[in-house]
């Protein structure tokens, strides 16, 4: 099943939206991370919270400097989603937790389809590759 999320222009870098296709009652979060689109099921595996309604942010990492001093750095800004219920953090690109765990969120494939292709699909016409100008974000469910 294909689900049209909307125009690429309506989801600029750093933004996200939650959509509710018929087959996915909890919804699917669609994210634009630096011009690349990713989609995750809107359910946190920890306690079932609405994951994709959480905060998109980065995370911190600790390193030891050459002079043996500890240093904390902010990294991966805009690549992490934090569940609004208990703040479990997941990679938007993969759905994996950022800590050691087997828990993960289901990712969905996302494609960008030119407007001409979308019109042909609606009409049931076979399509061929074309240049992308005005485009739509599409989920394959």
What's this model, at a glance?
It contains 1 helix and 10 strands.
Shape: globular
Largest sheet: number of strands, sense, barrel closure: 4 strands, antiparallel
Low-confidence stretches at least 5 residues in length (pLDDT < 50)?
none
CATH architecture: 3-layer Sandwich
- Give the fraction of residues assigned to helices: under 10%
Alpha-carbon distance between the two ends: 5 Å
The helix-and-strand class reads mainly beta
Oligomer: single chain
Q: Kindly report the average pLDDT value.
A: 88
Give the CATH H-level superfamily.
Rieske [2Fe-2S] iron-sulphur domain
Number of H- or I-type helical stretches: 1
- Please report the total strand number as a whole number: 10
Query: How many domain regions?
Result: 1
Strand content: 35-45%
The CATH class label is Mainly Beta
CATH topology: Rieske Iron-sulfur Protein
Radius of gyration: 18 Å
Helix and strand run: EEEEEEEEEHE
Side-by-side strand order of the widest sheet: 2-3-4-8
């Amino acid at each position: 099943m294909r689900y049209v999320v909307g125009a690429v222009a309506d989801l600029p870098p750093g933004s996200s939206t939650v959509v509710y296709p018929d087959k996915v009652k909890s919804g699917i979060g669609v994210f634009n991370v630096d011009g690349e689109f990713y989609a995750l099921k809107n359910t946190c595996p920890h306690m079932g919270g609405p994951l994709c309604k959480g905060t998109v942010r980065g995370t911190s990492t600790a390193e030891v400097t050459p002079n043996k001093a500890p240093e904390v750095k902010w990294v991966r800004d805009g690549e992490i989603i934090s569940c609004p219920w208990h703040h479990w953090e997941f990679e938007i690109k993969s759905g994996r937790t950022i800590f050691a765990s087997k828990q993960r969120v289901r990712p969905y494939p996302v494609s960008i389809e030119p407007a001409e292709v979308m019109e042909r699909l609606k009409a049931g016409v076979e399509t061929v590759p074309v240049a992308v100008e005005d485009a739509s974000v599409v989920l394959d469910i």
